[in-house]
Task: inverse folding
């Protein structure tokens, strides 16, 4: 019974007080964004985690976000992920072992110092550690351009992993798209390492299945239906979609844009469907999904069920903290270097 569950959540939160901070990503379902202490994009959630005083951070998001929070928080704080199934498929598209093998190929034809790796926040801790160890950094959808500029100042070529769409969209922003290639080291017909490194930017061949499904046909269809509509999309969308939209931004940037819109403005939003529905509730503007019924939720984010949040909170109150996300100290040290470089940007 959702009403009974909400009562229990309110009661246990009152009991736990400031000992527990609940962070929620914008893609979480309504009941969770309503109960979270702070809701935001990956960047804002990482800064909130870094500032947190609470003994325990309950992270209503996905594994890579909880890992980053664990790396950024103090050693005596715990980070709890209410469901261990909440894993972003895109983060799994560049595993550290695969990247090590590709790095060996690339550094056979160029010095390691000339290649600066950047990983998207949507990656596991071992890939962040790889970037930290090799002079690189982490970025999110809200600071990718700044991170790329930082890296281009320090090396000949930037290697960006794993999201090809964010990589190419950022290259376009910076005017280096003519010197950008998508690299799949296992494609027998693909680029060889030396040809790839002739470019400013080498982008791993990963993508988000929630955002990759948007096409320019969806943008044309909403415009045909309503010529007054404005379109905003997330930079994990295909470059053709980003180019045809009126605006692009991280989930927090999309939220700010829509909340600042005037009443009567109409916005079609190309991102995860729960967030589109939150914006429709929160904003004065008329908000619709970019592709109607075909817009999807994120299977990883959906794993965070309100019942699981209640279970972790009641367990913490009972003295047994479940689902603690803990990155091993050596990985955490290098990954922290890469995260700190981003936070210092
Ligand atoms: P934001 O950093 O924009 O919140 O994006 C996270 C994400 O997973 C988008 O798919
Ligand atoms: Fe990963 Fe895409 Fe879900 Fe974001 S929306 S967490 S990138 S699968």
Result:
């Amino acid at each position: 019974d959702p009403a009974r569950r909400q009562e229990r959540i309110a009661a246990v939160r009152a009991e736990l007080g400031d000992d527990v901070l609940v962070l929620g990503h914008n893609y979480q379902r309504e009941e969770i964004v309503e109960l979270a202490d702070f809701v935001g994009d990956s960047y804002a959630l990482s800064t909130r985690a870094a500032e947190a005083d609470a003994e325990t951070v309950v992270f209503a998001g996905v594994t890579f976000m909880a890992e980053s929070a664990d790396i950024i928080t103090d050693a005596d704080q715990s980070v709890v992920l209410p469901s261990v199934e909440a894993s972003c498929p895109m983060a799994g598209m560049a595993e550290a072992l695969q990247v090590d093998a590709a790095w060996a190929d690339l550094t056979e034809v160029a010095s390691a110092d000339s290649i600066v790796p950047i990983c998207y926040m949507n990656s596991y801790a071992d890939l962040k550690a790889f970037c930290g160890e090799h002079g690189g950094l982490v970025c999110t959808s809200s600071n990718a351009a700044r991170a790329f500029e930082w890296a281009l100042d320090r090396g000949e070529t930037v290697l960006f992993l794993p999201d090809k769409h964010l990589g190419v969209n950022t290259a376009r922003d910076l005017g280096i798209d003519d010197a950008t290639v998508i690299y799949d080291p296992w494609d027998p017909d693909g680029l060889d390492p030396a040809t790839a490194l002739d470019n400013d930017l080498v982008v791993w061949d990963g993508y988000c299945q929630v955002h990759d499904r948007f096409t320019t046909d969806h943008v044309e269809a909403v415009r045909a239906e309503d010529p007054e509509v404005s379109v905003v999309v997330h930079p994990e969308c295909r470059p053709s979609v980003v180019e045809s939209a009126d605006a692009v931004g991280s989930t927090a940037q999309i939220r700010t844009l829509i909340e600042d819109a005037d009443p009567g403005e109409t916005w079609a939003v190309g991102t995860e469907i729960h967030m589109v529905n939150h914006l429709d509730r929160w904003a004065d503007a008329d908000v619709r999904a970019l592709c109607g019924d075909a817009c999807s939720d994120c299977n990883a984010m959906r794993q965070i069920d309100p019942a699981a949040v209640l279970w972790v909170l009641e367990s913490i109150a009972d003295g047994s903290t479940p689902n603690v996300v803990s990155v091993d100290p050596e990985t955490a040290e290098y990954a922290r270097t890469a995260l700190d470089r981003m936070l210092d940007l």
User: Anything to note?
Assistant: The longest helix spans residues 2-16.
